[in-house]
Every structure is written in C-alpha cells, then in structure tokens.
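Re: beginner question about structure tokens

> Can someone show what the tokenized structure looks like for a real chain? I only ever see the sequence side.

Sure, here's an example I had lying around. Input first:
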Amino acid sequence: MTTLPLPHLLFLLSHQPEKDRLDDDSEAVRGSLLRGAAVAQLRLSGLLLDRAGRAERRNATPATTLDPFLAQVLADVPADRPRRWFDVLEQRWQQAEEAVQAQLVAAGAVTVEQRRVLGIIPAEQVVLTDPGSVRALRERVRRAAQREPGTAPPPIGEAVLAALAIDGNVSTVFGWRDLWGHKAAVAELKDQVDRELPGLRSTLIQSIALRRAG
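And the corresponding structure tokens:
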C-alpha cells in the first residue's frame, strides 16, 4: 500500500470501516482534496514546478509509469504554458473521486459492492482489502500532527496527508478532540508543507471554500 500515490492514500484514509463508505464530513470537498494530493505528488516527484506562483510542467519523462489519475492531472498543465495552481485544482474535480476509486479497485486495494438501502435506494459499499494497513497509515498520519513540537518533522508525504486531512475536515483521520492541545505541532506541520510545496495549501483552501459555499 505504501507504493500508492498520495491521492489514493487520502481516499483510503477517508474510509469509514464501520459503514464501508467514505466519511460524510469531507464529502463535498473530496474532489478538491484528491486533486490537491495529486498536485503534491507531482511536485514532490519533480514533474510539476512552481514558477512565480504558477504550475509549470517539467520537460522530463517520469521515472516510472504514472498512475492514470496523476497522468491526467499532469496533462491538465500544458507543456508550453504555465497555469494558475487554482485552475489546476479546479479542473475536473468532480471526476476525481470516481477515478481514484476505480484505480484502487484495479489495484485490489478496495472492492465495491452494490446494495440497496431499505431495499429501495441504490448505494455502494466500499470495502477495504487490507484494513490493518489503512489503520497503520492513519496512525502514522495522526502522529504527524500530534508529535512534540520541535521534534524531527514527519516524512513529507505523511505531512501532506495530515495537512490535507485537517484543512478538508477528513473526520476519519482527525476529530476536533484529536487536535486539542496540539496547536504548536499542527502549526509546524503546516509550515513544513508550505515550505516544501509553496502555494499548495493556500490554493487548496480556496477550492475548499468554493465547494463548501456551493
């Protein structure tokens, strides 16, 4: 599971095992969060660069074959024209959840079962193939925001997942009590992401606000 890209890990972190579905609190903004996680992955991989506050596509061949969702996000940045980060996040956000879920099914990380609520309303059950690995990932991400201030920073991938979960209110990762008393650690975490990926969180917060307002 650790080989999965950040948007796929964020999807798995959003899973409610007791209900076999994704959490309700971040549902409205999940598309934006998944796009943001994809942008983070592409920037950490060196395939997207920040050029004067805009997304610039690096003229390089990926070291490995890109996941289809990441490839689509990368393709949304023309090779010859930088784009605003906000425009990259807003492109096709409505299809992000379905695309990531389909790829997790193909990878064998989840299965999707059709059912009917009250025997009438069609619904999907998303079942984790390896719930233990997801629990372990969730604990690592939670610790990234709950460590003692001033200690060694977490790996950047875990820091990104934690920051996005906090900004997007992914309640399967953090409830409000989980962050109580950890304000300094959370501030350090967000500063780490902002240093390594400038503009990501500020732009994502705009997208989240737009989803919430809608």
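Each token stands for a local structural state, so reading them left to right follows the chain. The chain has nine helices and seven strands.
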